[in-house]
Amino acid sequence: MAEMTSLIERLEAGEILVSDGAMSTMLQKMGLTSETCPEQWNTSNPEAVAAVHRSYVLAGSDIICTNSCGGNPLKLDRYGLSGRTAELNAAGVRLAKEAAGDKVLVAASVGPTGRLLEPLGDLSADEARAAFAEQVGAATSAGADAILFETFFDLAEAEQAIKAALPFGTPIICTMTFDANGRTLMGTDAASAARALVGFGVRVVGANCGLGPEAMLPLVRQMAASGAFVMMQPNAGLPSVGGGEVAYSVTPETMADYAVRFVDSGAGIVGGCCGSTPEHIAAIVKAVKQQMG
Questions:
Q1: Is position 1 within any domain?
Q2: Percent of the chain with pLDDT over 70
Q3: pTM of the model
Q4: What is the CATH number of the domain that holds 58?
Q5: What CA–CA distance (Å, rounded) separates 285 from 269?
Q6: Nearest-angstrom CA–CA distance, 218 and 182
Q7: Among 131, 207, 211, which Cα is nearest to 164's?
């Protein structure tokens, strides 16, 4: 079997890629509770995780992301699972790879540690880097096609994550989370964040979570000015609770419309975050591929 074309090669060739949608909100519909470690489902309920992956592959995703956003040992320690870091991350990659087949890329999802770096917190740069290296090493060994650092709000932590990942030689994506004013929790604007990430050695930067597509649209051009490829994964609007269920307001058609606008503004990868479903991704695929002709 011929080797699959890499993420960076596909972007350099001018291809617009569609990633997947939410994992956590999909698993919650299947019974995942706030008391349960999502990454533990990679071994305790693998069929549910695999079903989510397959649904996004069927929807037309070019990239699917592993169920491992909170899979670093510092976060897993909250559940007494830090000793299973390699196992849970490798299982997450295997489940995604089995669903992906030979045409869909698998990005290993890696989120923040959940702790603040010194001097704001008690986490040293060395500790953070070691935690990320453990997670990324497991994902890379299991065959991940890319590492997706997502939902970061602190550039200092993102820098340690990237430093940990660079030696493995796997393509790196890093997406930050911004508020309605276009700034991270630490006050960094999108343009500055993108420039910093490029300086750290990242080829693909972007934004995910925190905002719906309309609020995220202005960030695309700001981040594209860095010269990097840009990935945008908005939430399907803001959540509302009714009848004991969480609902998101943005329809697949609206998400698809904004995905086309993202591409027109310079994004090379588009997808969704919290609340987005295979229906959202299928609509995005149809709209974006039509746009490409």
A1: no
A2: 98
A3: 0.96
A4: 3.20.20.330
A5: 11
A6: 8
A7: 131
